[in-house]
Amino acid sequence: MEKFINITLKVWRQNGPKDKGRFEIYKLNNITTDSSFLEMMDILNEQLIGEGKEPVAFDHDCREGICGMCSLYINGHPHGPDDDVTTCQLHMRKFKDGETITIEPWRSAAFPVIKDLIVNRSAFDQIIASGGYVSVSTGGVPDANAIPIPKADADEAMDAASCIGCGACVAACKNGSAMLFVSAKVSQLALLPQGRVEGARRAKAMVAKMDELGFGNCTNTGACEVECPKGISLSNIARLNREFLCAKLQD
Ligand code: SF4
Ligand code: FES
């Protein structure tokens, strides 16, 4: 049932990458619990603009859990308190009347803050560009359909491919590791015959780029899997480790 709540927002404001940043407190009244978290942020910005203040910069695009842009740390959790949803899929019914909600950007050396709640996640693009693709000829659609692929492998590849590159796994990890992301991107291709051809080169190149960009090491704490909005499994990290080890043995 729709309710209306009054909330206090503690929002990270930072003018640019070199600014120290600070929290600012805002009060919002009569927010419908049917609104999404980002709609609530829109209301906050309308209020700020009405008061002649600068609106809060935050990232978003699809607002339906696909693009991975809405990278907010809410009350200590990437994408907030709900399970298996992105920030844009989070609703205000998850919060109580009178609650104080703390909103921060991803905190990771590899994702520097651009402004307020927006971080630079182009490090992920660089990792993909280093090898997260198939560059051999795989024929046309009829050829792909003619290759028998076990259902279990196809399902696992599809599960891995559901990674939206949001970066919550990195933000959740005390080491700032990107292993869950990289392992999903390696797995979605390694599980299919079209991706196997370049499997060894891909695993080595993507791990090397991840290390070069300053992401931390994985120490198997599992925080990434818990906070991932797409339920990407830690088993992908085990597969990446196997792929990487086998590739190194072939050197
Ligand atoms: S593995 Fe999950 S948390 Fe990490 S980038 Fe992909 S979808 Fe986001
Ligand atoms: S805005 Fe696209 S996933 Fe949230």
Automatic annotation (TrEMBL):
Gene Ontology terms: biological process: aerobic respiration; respiratory electron transport chain
Family, as annotated: Belongs to the succinate dehydrogenase/fumarate reductase iron-sulfur protein family.
Lineage, broadest ranks: Bacteria, Pseudomonadati, Bacteroidota, Bacteroidia, Marinilabiliales
Superkingdom of origin: Bacteria
Annotated ranges, domain 4Fe-4S ferredoxin-type: 154-184
Signal peptide stretch: none
InterPro entries: 2Fe-2S_ferredoxin-like_sf, 2Fe2S_fd_BS, 4Fe4S_Fe-S-bd, Beta-grasp_dom_sf, Helical_ferredxn, SDH/FRD_Iron-Sulfur, Succ_DH/fum_Rdtase_N
Cofactors named for this entry: [3Fe-4S] cluster; [2Fe-2S] cluster
Protein name per its UniProtKB record: Succinate dehydrogenase / fumarate reductase iron-sulfur subunit
Species of provenance: Breznakibacter xylanolyticus
Listed Gene3D superfamilies: 3.10.20.30, Alpha-helical ferredoxin
Pfam families: Fer2_3, Fer4_8
Cited PROSITE patterns: 2FE2S_FER_1, 4FE4S_FER_2
A GO molecular-function annotation: 2 iron, 2 sulfur cluster binding
